[in-house]
Amino acid sequence: MAASAKGRFVPVLAVAAALVAALLYRAPFSKSLGGEGCSLLPHDHFWIASDRVVTLGRVGPAAVEVKGGLINAIAVGDYRNFVLRRPLLDYGDAVIMPGLIDVHAHLDEPGRAEWEGFSTGTRAAAAGGITTLVDMPLNSFPSTVSEETLKLKLEAAQDKLYVDVGFWGGLVPENAFNPSALESLLNAGVLGLKSFMCPSGIDDFPMTNSTHIEEGLVTLAKYQRPLLIHAERIPDVEDDDGLDGELDPRSYATYLKSRPPAWEESAIKDLQRAMKDTGAGGRSEGAHIHIVHLSDAKTSLELMKDAKRSGASVTVETCPHYLAFSAEEVPDGDTRFKCAPPIRDGMNRENLWKALLDGHIDMLSSDHSPADPDLKLMEEGNFLKAWGGISSLQFVLPVTWSYGKKYGITLNQLAAWWSENPAKLAGQKDKGAILPGYHADIVVWKPEAQFELDDSHSVYHKHRNISAYLGKELSGKVLSTFVRGNLVFAEDKHAKAACGVTILAK
Prior knowledge:
Blueprint: E1 2-3, E2 9-10, H1 17-23, H2 29-32, E3 45-55, E4 58-67, E5 70-76, E6 88-90, E7 95-98, E8 100-105, H3 118-127, E9 130-135, H4 147-157, E10 164-167, E11 169-170, H5 173-176, H6 179-187, E12 193-196, H7 210-223, E13 226-230, H8 252-258, H9 261-270, H10 272-277, E14 288-291, H11 299-309, E15 314-318, H12 320-324, H13 346-357, E16 363-364, H14 396-404, H15 411-425, E17 442-452, E18 473-483, E19 486-490, E20 493-494, E21 502-503
Helix pairs in contact: 6-7, 9-11
């Protein structure tokens, strides 16, 4: 063993000098990466190591053995004595963490590939340290509400995936009371179902009410798969604070009034019986309700806490844009910030962070919801007419870290919010952690590295200009992303072939 100038040990490998240059992290990746096909590395058995590996509930020095796409072993502590016979990628003090699992992304293919697509979306995911996506059943066309439409998704995804991708199916009025139709969709491999309690904006994905949801949960209980719910419902009687008179559609305050917290509160109250039925002895015991993109950190959050305390099988997610932005900061006319539910005020943002840190919010997701730029009406700036959705897939790791640092978030918390808990929701027992036998889905990143999302920054989304994060200075640069042991992204370079797999429930 020979000591480096910084006092770190570099293994002496019994391989050719050229291979050593390709494998040691201190050699520039841009010059040394030479793998063909699925991986930027030329082998499938190697070690990766650093002084900050997130595994076994700790963060510290360790080496991870990758073999045949799986994590084969972990050497904790002074790993350099354990890895003399295999190639080693030594990442110094960079963080090695489970790859992110994003359970809420709209890739819009087939039918709306001009909005996004499997190729561009999964390239962006890989560049952001995301190793698994679960695709929403809308805004593609047709929506994924049947076995036949799922097949169209699978065909559209073929040979385009840089990360692994699973699929949610849709619970809509036409299949909610038809157990055979739902069972056909579930048997075809969707990981669970998704429904809207308000108009979705997509014609072939109509809204459901609590009765549809209760019936769908009975079928889901047989499969022990979750129902994801967009929990906004127009109250039967709206209060006097809604839209009235002449209001400026360019004003963000106008849009905020158009979707008040009462919509989220009304939906969750309407779900109380359905949530109770998921508990022990309930009609839909074995099913699980997951509330997507919670925005209201007041009454809606308290209702979810009560449901959990009562024994309901429920979880909650929120999104980085609700944690990064506040209504007071959204410029009038800047429709890049429009989403549903809306980004609310600064105090609400503080309460969301507190709920996340206290464990009342279980996980994070991107809700990457891109669109054709013309639909965002950025020149007109009309919040009431523009298409909603935040384009964010590539940025969620540095955004979460950058805005969470002042709250003292830890690497273990990041791994729980973005890897461990999403894996459980999606039923992926071999993903979400760095443990022997798990898929070698890994992100390597530098939390201290700062960068600006300016015009020179490589962005792989279909339409970079619609992202609300452009122009922001962030911390946390992704260095490498491994999917099932394949180095699919490193130093702004993707593998030559897209070898991610489609994930189907069994």
